[in-house]
Amino acid sequence: QKEVEQNSGPLSVPEGAIASLNCTYSDRVSQSFFWYRQYSGKSPELIMSIYSNGDKEDGRFTAQLNKASQYVSLLIRDSQPSDSATYLCAVSSGANNLFFGTGTRLTVIP
Amino acid sequence: EPEVTQTPSHQVTQMGQEVILRCVPISNHLYFYWYRQILGQKVEFLVSFYNNEISEKSEIFDDQFSVERPDGSNFTLKIRSTKLEDSAMYFCASSEALHTVSADTQYFGPGTRLTVL
Predict the structure, then answer these.
(1) Phi/psi of residue B73, each to 5°?
(2) Nearest in space to B68 (alpha carbons), one of B59, B79, B81, B60
(3) How far is B68 from chain A (nearest CA, A)?
(4) Does the distance separating the beta carbons of B108 and A44 come in below 8 Å?
(5) Residues of B in Cβ contact (< 8 Å) with A43
(6) What angle do CA A9, B114, B87 make, to 5 degrees?
(7) According to the model, what pLDDT value does residue A85 have?
(8) Who's near B2: CB < 8 A, 6+ residues apart?
(9) How does pLDDT run across B43-62, given as a tens digit for each residue?
(10) What is the pLDDT of residues B55-113, one digit of tens each?
(11) Contacts of B34 in chain A (CB under 8 A)
């Protein structure tokens, strides 16, 4: 059974702070890793993808991947109230089917 | 910007009825997927589809479910005899390719909320 684990939160940070979201996965052959943002009642919206060990930055977002530890994280710098959402970690391998975590609910307090 | 579209946005049906959920994937994408999300739970993979056949399916995707690409643009999910537990958001997704950096990214449609009474 392929598992993707996330802390469900809620995680609350003040506006302007750094939010740190973590994810672990069980399948060692996983190849592609994604962070999606999901607002309540809406569909998952891609934030970032990462494929190799290390950091990948895109604007205020930085994804980090450590395949040896089976760990992927997302940092959100200068958090804004509009960042308040549920963040989904998704992992794929082989057939490209995505396995999602339960998501971490982030609240950014103005 | 190209996007995945889904219709209807909300479908209400009686238990035992058949429903068809429709999706139009992004036009140059070759791989199509259905996922579902029961309220308050995680997004779950149902089925993937490529070259007019199912590539992979999950345990959820039993004989009550079927998928079809009836023409060059639509991709449908049929549930033959709906059950109460089929009530969920159903998301269609598409990707350009497999196992290729960035091209395997899946883009999701807005979803269809299915309510089975």
Answers:
(1) -130, -35
(2) B79
(3) 18
(4) yes
(5) 89, 91, 108-111
(6) 65
(7) 97
(8) B26, B27, B28
(9) 999 999 998 999 999 999 99
(10) 999 999 999 999 999 887 899 999 999 999 999 999 999 998 776 667 788 999 999 99
(11) none
β B112-116/B88-95 pair status: antiparallel
- Per the listing, tokens 């190209």 go with B2
Picking from B46, B2, B37, B25, the residue whose alpha carbon sits closest to that of residue A44 is B37
Nearest to B99 among A31, A46, A103 (CB): A31
CB–CB contact A103 B58 (8 Å): no
Q: State how far the Cα of A105 lies from the Cα of A86, in Å rounded to an integer.
A: 4
Q: Which residue type does B51 have?
A: N
Cite the beta strand spans of chain A per DSSP E: 4-6, 11-14, 19-25, 32-38, 45-50, 54-58, 61-66, 71-76, 85-93, 97-100, 104-109
